[in-house]
Amino acid sequence: MSRRIKRTVSPGDRAKGGSGRSKRKPDDRIKSDRPPAHRAGGKPPRLAEPRRERREKPEPAVSRPEKATSELPLPTKVQTVVVTADENNMRVDRFLEARFPGLSFSHIQRIVRKGELRVNGKRADSKDRLEEGQSVRIPPLRLDAPKAATALSEAQTRTLQALKEMTLYEDDDVLVLNKPAGLAVQGGSGMTRHVDQMLEVMRDAKGQKPRLVHRLDRETSGCLLVAKTRFAATHLTGAFRHRSARKIYWALVAGVPKPKQGRISTYLAKEESEDDTIMRIAAHGDEGASHAVTYYAVVETSAQKLAWVSLKPVTGRTHQLRAHMAHIDHAIVGDPKYFNKENWELPGGLQNRLHLLARRIVIPHPRGGVIDVSAPLPPHMQQSWNLLGLEADRFDPIENAPEE
């Protein structure tokens, strides 16, 4: 038997503090009116032209099977268990710790050393890696008394509440956060508060902490994907590696790019100094240079001085979108590293902060189905959209850009 989990997160709902519900099935979203995939040997599809009618964007829809409980009761006799998908590639000792919380390290080493634990009928070392489907023979075990759970401190409770307020989507395996601008994803020099550190309060009974799957710059807001289990982390990082994850960003840039839809392809290399690190446009073959590809589309303009641009990165290089927009002479407003237009004045009322949002992420769920989550405009960008008269619910023409 399977269960379906559906959740809708619309930008308007988040901005207004409400929530919407959708009865649409995952297959309905997949069968949307998008153009057919690009065929080999043919011309790549053009970016979609803006349409008159506005479509409601389908939001998180996930279909996945029930998650089996892997923790076993107190074993009083020899038993044989099968390695699950969630336990694939786990070390033997970690497997026993996860299955039997309270089992001492010395006890694990002793039964392995004596050959009492067998994998597919053969002796195993505690550092051996298990594979899904293998049979593990487990002898009677003696469990230590479980440690009493400690209550969260006041500071930890506040951190947990902050994470809940940032949550756009959550299930047993996956968490999608709406990271605010100014909050770092990982620690650095002098960094005392960041997402990775905040996730410490979400360690489960087995001591597993949610894992970051990708990164966002400190001043970039929006969708940040987190894996809550080892199984999910393996599958989600694989989706990024094989480019089956799709990310869409929104930005406010100086001037109006021409043409209004296009592809940026360069090589980027890291340039470090004592005070800063930036990505520079490099030549093919330069030391440390990596190929970077970005598709862009202008959504709306404001007096030909500013443009709301939707961006789809094909690759995931450091500062890729910021460096690419500066490269075509349309730097992102408020970018302290790459905005270098001379004699350019920020329009009155706009905050001098990075106007870049990780708007949407679409990625296969580790247990089947698709995760599709969108983040609302952060307060400083919403203020700019209001002042410039930009309509945040306009059709996004980048949606059907090529994937390569």
Kindly list the characteristics that best describe this protein.
single chain; 404 residues; alpha+beta; 11-stranded mixed sheet; 4-stranded antiparallel sheet; 17 strands; 25% strand; elongated
Describe what this molecule looks like in 3D.
By secondary structure, the protein is of the alpha+beta class. The protein is built from nine helices and 17 strands. It is elongated and about 75 Å long. The strands form three sheets. Strands 7, 8, 9, 10, 11, 12, 13, 14, 15, 16 and 17 form an eleven-stranded mixed sheet that branches. It has a four-stranded antiparallel sheet with strand order 3-6-4-5, with no helix packed on it. It has helices spanning 11-16, 26-30, 92-99, 105-113, 154-166, 195-198, 230-241, 320-327, 379-388; strands spanning 2-6, 61-65, 79-82, 118-119, 122-123, 135-138, 167-170, 174-179, 211-212, 221-227, 246-254, 261-272, 277-282, 290-302, 306-313, 356-364, 370-374.
Q: How is the secondary structure organized here?
A:
Layout (H helix, E strand, L loop, with lengths): L1 E5 L4 H6 L9 H5 L30 E5 L13 E4 L9 H8 L5 H9 L4 E2 L2 E2 L11 E4 L15 H13 E4 L3 E6 L15 H4 L12 E2 L8 E7 L2 H12 L4 E9 L6 E12 L4 E6 L7 E13 L3 E8 L6 H8 L28 E9 L5 E5 L4 H10 L16
Parallel strand pairs: 10-16
Antiparallel strand pairs: 1-2, 3-6, 4-5, 4-6, 7-8, 8-10, 9-10, 11-15, 11-16, 12-13, 12-14, 14-15, 16-17
